[in-house]
Structures
1.
Amino acid sequence: LCAQDEGKTSIPLDHFYAKPIHGATALRKILKDFHFGLYSGLGKTYFNGKDGKGHVINIPLAATLHYEFDRYRIGAGYSYELMGMGSLSSNTTGEKINPTGHIRKYWGMAGVSFYRWNDYLFTGDLQVGSYKMKVNYNSSQVVTSTFFNFGVTAERNLSEYFKVFVRPYYEIKSCNLMPSGGQSIHYNINGLYATVGFTYSIPELPRCFLRDCHAQINHAHGNKEYRSRRHPIYKKQNPGYGENDPVLLKYKGKNKKKLDPY
């Protein structure tokens, strides 16, 4: 009998092991690059015109959707802003107005990431859109302009799909007040904001369907790949050894004082 050649197997291993199939569907591969976001914060808007000046406080509540590719992102958003706790003085009449109400904004955005420091990514971005202002005087007399703002987003990945961020930005916009029987009054109403929020994207791999599965990383059942079901969305879904829990259980809380914490 002829001896078998070294390095060769008589029966291919794929006769015994199913070739794993990536668990991501075509739809999941597309959706993983779309990021849904929510944010809020605090802003201060300054009214400045020939007839007077003043300021108001803004509290934005916003929802966003953007698509990321390479270092770039494009998207859109909507916000509802509470406005009040300020005053506006008229040079013509001497009257003081408290412009309380709300602002609705719709915008498109574009950005580019320019720097990474440890777990933090910095992105410069621009938003351009329209807004409607509802205040405690006749809103039909208010004609608004296009607005745009520019800022820097500093975000941190808590997991592959969940990020938190802060975004300070400066906003430029204007409006014209059209009083009955009078001349139009132009106001620049620029503002400075600081916001915090989070974004979430659809995971590329489906969650493991076995409730009793204790796998901590991406793994296969049969010939299909799944992600772990053991981690919350704010922790790594496919962590390296000790990445999600770098401190051992015996060094946490009351266990630090025990002789045998396990």
Note: The chain has a mean pLDDT of 82.
2.
Amino acid sequence: MAQSELLQRLHEDYNLEHGIETKENKKPLDLLTQTIKFSGCIKHLLTSHKVPYANEEDDNTYEEYLLSDDEGSAIPNKKSKNKKQNKVGAEDEVEERIASIKNKLRQKKGPTTERQQKRREAKKLKRSKGVQKILLSSSKNLKNENVKHQKLKGAIKTEDEALEDDKSLVKPVASQPAFNQEGKIVYSKVDFAANPGGKTKRSHQNPKEILKKLKDTKKQINELKEQGETEKVAEIKNDIAWKKAFDKVEGKKVKDDTKLLQKAIKKRKVEKRKAKTKWSERKEKVEHDKSKRQKKRQDNLDKRSKDKKTRKLKKASKKGRIIAGY
């Protein structure tokens, strides 16, 4: 709604209430005329209801409507008195509570009956006895430990004295210089001059050679027996026995059993045969794979060249050349 319409509506309502007849104007009134009329109506209302009028200069007009000091001062005084009384009552209650708590604490601290006092004394005695027992046990343990230490020290001293006596009895042995096979003095325990590389020669591991040697020695012994030289045979046998013994002491394997040697030779032959067959199979396989790869490569190359030719011929036929098959 516009402001002009609102004013008109209010004016009409006022006229209806007061029974004022309104003349219907054909022309609508301006906003200014409507506001003037409305303000006149408001003034009429204010004067009819006797509303007090005040100028802008009169600042103290509100004092007429306020209460006097005597009338208004009675209520706050009562409130302040009540507050003071409440405060005093609360303080008294707090003091009473504190006093009661103090009394209770005093009662707890000081036993009122003899029975309680006796109980407390008994507890104190028990505690003191327990402490005394602990102290006694600890002192005993310390004494025992001290005694043990002293005994150990005495035993160690006696052992040291005995060792010193033994040392005095033992005489130093004069070490004689050791000579090697070449007649040179060896200062260390190991003779590095004998084997400068540090590697000892291995005994023959080939069973064929060992078997051959055994057969040769056997043949030699038989020949000497036939000739009647028994002393030489005994010497050779003795040397062989000593050699075996020394080899065993050094940790070398003594291979003098002909049956075992023949078995080992057979085993080696079988292993060689197997290895030979495996090697031949491997060779064949390698050759086969090689030929296969070469064939595949050649096929690929042929195919590539063929495809190239066909492409060229197709291009030529498209350009207009007459080629058989395209």
Note: The first strand starts at residue 178 and ends at 179.
